[in-house]
Amino acid sequence: MPAAQRAASAHIDTFARDRLPPPQALPDFIFEGPALQFPARLNCATALLGDAVQRGDGARLCVQGAGLRWSFAELQAQADRIARVLVEDLGLVPGNRVLLRGANSPMLAACWFAVVKAGGIAVGSMPLLRAGELAAIVAKAQISHALCDAPLADELLRAQTQCPSLRHLLRYGGELEARAAAKPAGFDDVDTAADDIALIAFTSGTTGVPKGTMHHHRDVMAACACWPPHVLRPRPDDVFIGSPPLAFTFGLGGLLLFPLAARASTVLIEKAAPETLTAAIARYRATVCFTAPTSYRAMALALLDGRCTDDLSSLRKCVSAGEALPAATRALWKQATGIELIDGIGSTELLHIFISADEQQARGGATGLPVPGYRAAILGDDGRELPRGEVGRLAVKGPTGCKYLDDPRQAQYVQHGWNLTGDAYRIADDGQFEYQARTDDMIVSGGYNIAGPEVEAALLLHPAVAECGVVGEPDEARGMVVKAYIVLKPGHAADESMTRTLQDFVKQTIAPYKYPRAVAYRASLPRTETGKLQRFKLRDATT
Ligand code: 3UK
Predict the structure, then answer these.
(1) Are residues 418 and 461 in the same domain?
(2) Relative to the CA of 203, which ligand 1 atom is closest?
(3) Is 250 near ligand 1, meaning CB less than 6 Å away?
(4) Does 400 sit in the ligand 1 pocket, CB within 6 Å?
(5) What residue owns the CA closest to ligand 1's atom 3?
(6) Which residue in 253, 278, 263 sits closest to 109, CA to CA?
(7) Which residues on adjacent β-strands are paired with residue 470?
(8) With bands split at pLDDT 50, 70 and 90, how would you rate the model's confidence at 204?
(9) C or N: which end of the chain has fewer Cβ atoms within 10 Å?
(10) Any domain includes 15
(11) Does residue 324 line the site of ligand 1, with CB under 6 A?
(12) What is the pLDDT of residue 3?
């Protein structure tokens, strides 16, 4: 944004702003088209919630779950009262970081809006985190306040003993609601600058120390203006549902920001395993579903073999992200429900999805095209764009981009003005972007580059395979060999003959040199709370 258009920050506590990367370490930002022209002053809570109520949508259904059912006006009223508790009772000043800890629920949504209305910075945390992991986040972001779902308070109380910055911890599920109910109605949202920080999302990362990615109020509205209207195209009568936690920006966008921006409604349910999710879709007559590829696969298998009898006929659109979508899973979901999945790659650093395909563009094995508002390219190791067809590093720029909180890894994610996601991709002849692997998951075996996910996609086509993960195993002769970890469907024996069958099957399906020379069987595979396969754990198991 040109300096002249910049509004003064509303943040009194400048901790986060002071720890933004220096201008030369930021990616390029592009704001093309009328939907991406933002005023200098913008509070995304006002834009998403206050404006909905003001423009006459107050009585419409907004959020359900945990036995609650709130209209836009009711969510706004609850968020206003919580904002008053934060400011009047707990001394919150604009710029303070507030930890949110809880399973997805309407109260968690109200807390998120309360923090952002008050000019605070919302810091989500995954429900499964333990005291040590919570303490690392609290220390890194110097968090002063926490709002916590009562049953999850123990780990946070334990973290608090090591965290002097965390002065105020309030539980909801009783205490916070009682305090909020005693407050008068209404709250004047803090008039933040468009580039004040609204949230810090810690990366779900499958390895290493968590990174805090910072996002402006403007970034939230940019995410709402790009992928949803161009690819998802929701309607005001849609009912959103899904499994990703609101602490994961896939969930925050898909289950809170996007439904509200569309004036649709959302169902927020606690950690939704595939069985819980299908039951909730049926119960709430949900129309738009967000979850990870493995969850679609598990739901499809249960529907097809009759274990699941839930009525999913209300579903209209299904979105898959978080991991590469194998073509076999796309086909299974279509077979089970008749619905073509909408795949999209997003990242915590870019806030949400930047390459995707709608139902018409969707093609097995391809993620899709750059979402309007974003540009994408494939770069070689020297940073130059590669010709079509060649595998290289995925590079993206648009209205959102990587801004780590005080982290030297900024220089890895952002190079030459591009955001480098760490994924190896190629552009196919039809212009669609095809995922290969995480850059550091490429297996180099006997001089060949082999992408683990391609071998996984082939194995998933075999009827005996429920789940699988493919990694490189160090090998004296070849450098690495392809090793497959396999979870078999019930009723199949994990023996030599199965191994030969699967190896032959891969050789028949993709180039024979890619077949797994080593095969191991497991009862389950290690995954993060967001559904990503933890390949590093499989790799550790091989050494
Ligand atoms: C991988 C995908 C292939 C890819 C996310 C949608 O996953 C999200 O954010 P994370 O920071 O991870 C980012 C990385 O995950 N990935 C995600 N989606 C796909 N790979 N196809 C996909 N469709 O390696 C990427 O770099 O946890 C996804 C929206 C918001 C998000 N934060």
Answers:
(1) no
(2) 11
(3) yes
(4) no
(5) 324
(6) 253
(7) 484
(8) low
(9) C
(10) no
(11) yes
(12) 44
Which residue from 248, 296, 325, 345 has its CB within 8 A of the most atoms of ligand 1, so it is best to mutate? 345
Specify the residue with its C-alpha closest to ligand 1, atom 6: 346
Q: Are 56 and 177 within one domain?
A: yes
The domain spanning residue 184 has which CATH number? 3.40.50.12780
To test the pocket of ligand 1, the residue of 296, 318, 323 to mutate (highest count of ligand atoms within 8 Å of its CB) is 323
Q: Say if 396 falls within a structural domain.
A: no
Whether 159 and 193 map to the same domain: the answer is: yes
Question: Which residue puts its alpha carbon closest to atom 1 of ligand 1?
Answer: 323
- pLDDT given for residue 269 in this prediction: 97
Q: Is the CB of 457 under 6 A from ligand 1?
A: no
Same domain, 356 and 421: yes
Tell me the pLDDT band of 206, cut-offs 50, 70 and 90.
low
Ligand 1: distance of its center to the CA of 373 in Å? 18
329 C-beta closer than 6 A to ligand 1: no
Beta strands 288-291 and 239-242, pairing class: parallel
CATH number at residue 514: 3.30.300.30
- What atom in ligand 1 is closest to the CA of residue 422? 26
Closest CA to 432 of 340, 529, 363: 363
- pLDDT band per the 50, 70, 90 thresholds, residue 5: low
So what's the pLDDT on residue 4?
45
Convert 472-528 into a string of H (helix), E (strand) and C (coil): EEEECCCEEEEEEEEEECCCCCCCHHHHHHHHHHHHHHCCHHHCCCEEEECCCCCEC
67 lies in the same domain as 215 = yes
Distance, CA of 115 to CA of 176 (rounded, Å): 13
Based on the structure, what is the number of domains in the chain? 3
**DSSP category for residue 216:** E
Domain assignment present for residue 195? The answer is: yes
Q: Which three-class secondary structure string do you get for 439-453?
A: HHHEEEECCEEEEHH
Domain boundaries, position 369: 273-382+413-438
Task: Say if residue 76 is in the same domain as residue 223.
Answer: yes
Considering the domain architecture, whether residues 331 and 360 belong to the same structural domain is answered as: yes
Report how far ligand 1's centroid is from the alpha carbon of 173 (Å): 32
